[in-house]
Every structure is written in C-alpha cells, then in structure tokens.
C-alpha cells in the first residue's frame, strides 16, 4: 500500500476518526492512546519508552500507511481510528488498557513497561474522565473514581466515602483525594504521577507500570485519638493531691500491641497520682509503668466511616 495522503502539522496532533487508515504519526514527541480508540492493530516503531496495559509483541504488524502525518510534531493524542495505526520514532508512548482491538507491537523500543490490567468500569463511567494536556476535574462523593490519559492533569476527589479506583495514564498528573472510611486503588501507567491521600483513607497501588510514581498518604493523626492531653489533665488538677488520666502519642511502635494491627497512630493511656501546685505535679505518689496502648483500628475515639448529621446535610451542596 502506498501513501495516498501526506499531511504536515506543527504542534500537537489529535487523531479523532477523520483520517483514512492505516494512519502513521511520524516523529512525534509523546503519544497518548485512550481506551477503545483503535479498532485495528498498533505498531510503535523505535520509541524510547512504551508504557502499556496491553500485551506487547516485538513483531511489526503495521508497515504501510494510507495517511502519513509528519512535520514539526509535538504530542499526539489518539481518540478514534477505525483501523491500524503506526507510530514511528516517537519519544514516549502511553497506551491505556483496552485501547487497541488488534495486536500491539513495539519493534525497536528501547524500554517497554507492560502489564495486562482491566478497568473497573468503562472509561466514560468514571466520575472524572480527562484526556489531553493540562486538564482538570473535581468530583464530590464519587462512586467509581478517576480516569486520566495525557499530561499534567490536576484532579480532586472530595468527600470520598466509597472504595474508588484511580487510573492514571501519562505523566505529570496530580490527584488529591480526601474523605474517610474508603480504600483508594491506584493504577499508574507512565511516570512522575502523584496521588495525595487524606489521613482517614486507605490506599494501595495495584499496578505501577512505569517509574517515579508516588502515593503521598498522610498518616492518621494520633491527636485524633486523644481524649485528654497531659497538659489538659495537669491544668484541670488544680491544687492538692489528685489522680489524673491522660493520653500521649506513642512514637516507637509500628504495630499496635492491643489489636495487633499495623498502625500509623498509637497512643498510650497514663494514670498518675500526684500533688499538684498551680497545675504542675511537684510530688508523685504513683504512676502507670505499663500504659495501655490503642491505635486508629481499635481506639473508641477513632474516626469511622459513618456520616455525621452535618455531613448528611451538606454532602450534596
């Protein structure tokens, strides 16, 4: 087959279904391929890096193109091609799961990061679904999660109460997730992506198909488990001989001796009998030497997933 169409572009290029297949992108920078975007085969030829959640072979399956796109190309975005696609001499190529109906090959690629991972839902069923360059999105009380393909997406998920999935393809994404009582499952396809997770959420990286990706999970604050601090107990003691009870953070243990769970926040419950003067113990009669410990998993003061009355009123505001 010979090239019937040779188109020259400067800048970014998006394949949206108007090109006659097979389509070749020649010498682009980065290329991002969304889910269910290519009905034929895909050959990535001589790329520097390939990141994909689709099985890859080394054999070339697409050799000639009906439409060739070249010029001073920057990034390429593949949304819809009814046929085969050939990417020649690209820098980095990012291929989402189920992006290609046919075979995917990467002859001559310097580095290939590959996994075979299904999505938890259709791409358009996610609460936030973004594609392209410098996109942004926000969701409140999400049900499914976030799907992002491209470069430098800034996404926020608020008031998360149910388990959700973050599926991030490309590089430079920054996702902030806050809420309580849910698990955040993360899939990385690419590099330099960061997910920030609030202290009352659990998180797990299911797949990391790439490098320099990070989940920045804030630790559970031990202060949330404390009913009475040492300072408050001393202040309330006033003057005379008093018995006081207070809690302090424990910073030396990673496992809770009370429930046996790995814990981020452990506190100790102390008791003391002392003579107090102006809120300060000047003589101690007795004190606990083996204080009880508890953590965010077993403490009665831990924040649980149930919505407060105020949250039930405001969650849909």
Main attributes?
disordered C terminus; plasmid; 2 helices; mainly beta; 317 residues
Topology:
Layout: E1 5-16, E2 23-26, E3 31-33, E4 42-45, E5 49-52, E6 67-80, E7 85-88, E8 92-95, E9 104-105, E10 111-114, E11 128-133, E12 136-140, E13 145-151, E14 154-160, E15 164-171, E16 174-179, E17 183-191, E18 194-197, E19 202-211, E20 214-217, H1 230-237, E21 240-250, E22 266-277, E23 280-287, E24 292-295, H2 309-314
Parallel strand pairs: 1-6, 2-6, 2-7, 3-6, 3-8, 4-7, 4-9, 5-8, 5-10, 11-13, 12-14, 13-15, 14-16, 15-17, 16-18, 17-19, 18-20
Antiparallel strand pairs: 21-22, 22-23, 22-24
Summarize the structure.
This protein is about 5% helix and about 50% strand. It has helices spanning about 230-235, 310-315; strands at about 5-15, 25, 30-35, 40-45, 50, 65-80, 85-90, 90-95, 105, 110-115, 130-135, 135-140, 145-150, 155-160, 165-170, 175-180, 185-190, 195, 200-210, 215, 240-250, 265-275, 280-285, 290-295.
Structure report:
The protein has 2 helices and 24 strands. The chain is 4% helix and 49% strand. The radius of gyration is 28 Å and the shape is rod-shaped. The chain has 3 domains: 108 residues, no CATH class; 95 residues, no CATH class; 74 residues, no CATH class. The protein is mainly beta. The strands form 4 sheets. Strands 1, 2, 3, 4, 5, 6, 7, 8, 9 and 10 form a 10-stranded parallel β-sheet that branches. It has a 5-stranded parallel β-sheet with strand order 11-13-15-17-19, with no helix packed on it.
> Helicity range of the residues?
under 10%
* Proportion of residues in β-strands: over 45%
> What is the CA-CA span between the terminal residues?
58 Å
Structure class = mainly beta
Order of helices and strands: EEEEEEEEEEEEEEEEEEEEHEEEEH
Count all strands and give the number.
24
* Low-pLDDT ranges: 305-309, 311-317
Radius of gyration: 28 Å
What's the overall geometry?
rod-shaped
Largest sheet: 10 strands, parallel
Continuous helix count: 2
Number of domains in the coordinates?
Answer: 3
Average pLDDT over all residues: 90
Quaternary structure type: single chain
Biased composition (Polar residues): 1-19
Region (Disordered): 1-24
Keywords: Plasmid
């Amino acid at each position: 087959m010979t090239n019937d169409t040779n188109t020259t572009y400067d800048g970014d290029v998006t394949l949206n279904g108007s090109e006659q297949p097979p389509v070749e992108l020649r010498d682009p920078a980065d290329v991002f391929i969304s889910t269910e975007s290519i009905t034929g085969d895909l050959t990535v030829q001589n790329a520097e890096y390939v990141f994909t959640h689709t099985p890859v072979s080394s054999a070339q399956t697409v050799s000639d193109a009906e439409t060739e796109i070249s010029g001073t190309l920057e990034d390429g975005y593949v949304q819809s091609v009814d046929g085969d696609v050939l990417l020649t001499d690209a820098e980095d190529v990012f291929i989402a799961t189920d992006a290609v109906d046919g075979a995917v090959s990467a002859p001559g690629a310097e580095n290939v990061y590959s996994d075979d991972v299904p999505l938890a839902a259709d791409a358009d069923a996610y609460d936030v679904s973004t594609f392209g360059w410098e996109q942004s999105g926000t969701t409140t009380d999400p049900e499914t999660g976030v799907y992002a393909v491209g470069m430098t997406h800034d996404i926020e998920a608020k008031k998360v109460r149910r388990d959700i999935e973050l599926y991030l393809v490309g590089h430079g994404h920054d996702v902030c997730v806050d809420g309580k009582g849910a698990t955040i499952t993360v899939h990385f396809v690419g590099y330099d992506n960061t997910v920030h997770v609030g202290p009352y959420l659990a998180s797990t990286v299911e797949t990391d198909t790439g490098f320099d990706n990070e989940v920045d999970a804030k630790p559970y604050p031990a202060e949330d488990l404390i009913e009475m601090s040492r300072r408050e107990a001393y202040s309330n003691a006033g003057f005379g001989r008093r018995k006081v009870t207070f809690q302090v953070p424990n910073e030396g243990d990673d496992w809770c001796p009370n429930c046996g769970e790995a814990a981020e926040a452990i506190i100790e419950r102390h008791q003391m009998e002392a003579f107090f003067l102006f809120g300060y113990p000047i003589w101690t009669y007795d004190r606990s030497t083996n204080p009880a410990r508890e953590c965010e998993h077993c403490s009665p003061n831990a924040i649980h997933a149930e919505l407060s009355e105020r949250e039930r009123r405001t969650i849909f505001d």
